[in-house]
Amino acid sequence: MQTLYSHFLFLCFSCFSFVSLVHSWSQNQQFNQANNYEGSSNLVNLEYHMGPVLTAPINLYIIWYGHWNPTHQSTIRDFLYSLSSPAPFPSVSDWWRTVRLYTDQTGSNITGNIAISGEYYDYKYSHGNRLTRLTIQSIIKTSVSSYPRALPLNYHNGLYMVLTSSDVLVEEFCRAVCGFHYFTFPAIVGVTMPYFWVGYSGSQCPGMCAYPFAWPKYSGKPPPGSSGVDNIMGAPNGDAGADGMISVIAHELAEVSSNPLVNAWYAGDDPTAPTEIADLCVGVYGSGGGGGYVGEVYKDSWGNGFNVNGVRGRKFLVQWIWNPVKRRCFGPNAMD
Ligand SMILES: *[C@@H]1O[C@H](CO)[C@@H](O)[C@H](O)[C@H]1NC(C)=O
């Protein structure tokens, strides 16, 4: 669940516990220890710990916290619609097929049916602009209890996604995490429901959370092909922050679906710092990816990178997921 990432930063995409990150490591050590498993590996001890996975059709509720650019919102919505809608191969729903390979004790697969079932606009920053992990749960509580436009409290098959705008600081955001998933506590929200959070990183830390559309400032290396110009990968929907968020949303969605109560699919012996199905493939977007190289991806006619197609002609770049059958990271744009 906590992730070391290959662009020279120790980056925890989805820790639910704040593991202290090893800031003292040299960049080289961090680089060398970056994990990725594009090649088949029997060293990965991904195990099922008997808990539930999200097998019922998911009702996804979006909570837009803060001030949002409508263009970024529609990019994100289109990505979510694409999860269960047809689009030319390789599509977002083809990408989700890898997640659907995970089952629970009864042999039921993770659902392929994800619908946006409600949206809540918390444009008044109900809990301020400096949030902790627990205040994210309070934001969910506000969204399900506000008058007159509350989201339903759907503890049967609801999944709550909190997205914070560029001006919102979240505990550990940009220092260690780009997003995380967990479940709500009855003491705060009233019931236990899976949720995840992702922050807009476009202005706070694009090099960390909107990679590979932005270059990590402290990588110790210049951007590739830099001759005064940033020659890094263009974002397929025109905004490094929103396009970068989509890969983090994809990552969290895969993990919350396969480990919603943090007792289902993960690797590692420490349940407070599990390595989940997307953590194993951070930084890998295509064949050959890993160690700072994104892998074989496509370029649109403007030269922007992408690896899957979505609804309305959209293109997205999402990281690969650990495939439990092939025992390697995999995506529909794989060359083999
Ligand atoms: C369900 O999971 C099993 C085990 O990974 C897999 O063989 C099967 O194809 C999956 N079904 C779907 C619909 O994805």
From TrEMBL:
The keyword Secreted applies. It comes from the Eukaryota. Keywords: Apoplast, Secreted, Signal. It is found in: Secreted, Extracellular space, Apoplast. InterPro entries: EXORDIUM-like. Pfam families: Phi_1. GO terms for cellular component: apoplast. Its main location: secreted. Transmembrane segments: none annotated. Residues 1-24 form the signal peptide. PANTHER family: PROTEIN EXORDIUM-LIKE 5 (PTHR31279), PROTEIN EXORDIUM-LIKE 7 (PTHR31279:SF18). Belongs to the EXORDIUM family. This is Protein EXORDIUM-like. It comes from Actinidia chinensis var. chinensis (Chinese soft-hair kiwi).
